[in-house]
Amino acid sequence: MRRDPWQALADPTRRQIIDILSKEPLTINAIAENFNISRPAISKQLKILEASTLITIEQQGRERICSLSLAPLEEVATWVKQYELFWLQKLDRLDDFLKKENKL
């Protein structure tokens, strides 16, 4: 069952896994070493990320290697990008207001 990437990104542990994998592909054990939770708990998080197509897991000999898959993140980035101008305008107005207040 394919999961929604947005739902997968909602969890801080899964976001941290994505951050870790953004540097290099790693084995499941190497990923688990970064957390103070059980190996089965990490495996569960990885299954969710794989189902949402945010990562791929490939068998290489006895190891399972996890890699980041950027395609779903492009969809998220495109959606977020549309609000960038909105927030930049808000911050510019705040900056103008603060400059005006400091002159008084």
Largest sheet: 3 strands, antiparallel
N-C termini distance: 60 Å
Instruction: Give the CATH H-level superfamily of the largest domain.
Output: Winged helix-like DNA-binding domain superfamily/Winged helix DNA-binding domain
Mean pLDDT: 91
Strand content: 5-15%
> Numbering strands along the chain, what is their spatial order in the largest sheet?
1-3-2
* Gyration radius over CA: 19 Å
Helix coverage percent:
55-70%
Number of strands: 3
CATH fold assignment of the largest domain? Arc Repressor Mutant, subunit A
Q: What count of structural domains?
A: 2
Taken in chain order, the helices and strands follow as: HHEHHEEHH
Please identify the structural class as seen in this structure: alpha+beta
Principal-axis shape equals elongated
Number of helices: 6
CATH class group of the largest domain:
Mainly Alpha
Low-confidence stretches: none
What would you say the CATH architecture of the largest domain is?
A: Orthogonal Bundle
Task: Provide an overview of this structure.
The chain is of the alpha+beta class. It has two domains: 1-69, Winged helix-like DNA-binding domain superfamily/Winged helix DNA-binding domain (Arc Repressor Mutant, subunit A, Orthogonal Bundle), CATH 1.10.10.10; 70-104. Helices cover 62% and strands 13% of the residues. The chain contains six helices and three strands, in the order ααβααββαα. The chain has helices at residues 5-9, 12-21, 28-32, 39-51, 71-81, 84-103; strands spanning 26-27, 55-60, 63-68. It has a three-stranded antiparallel beta sheet with strand order 1-3-2. A hairpin with a 2-residue loop joins β2 (55-60) and β3. The protein is elongated and about 70 Å long. The N and C termini lie far apart (60 Å). The model has no long low-confidence stretch (mean pLDDT 91).
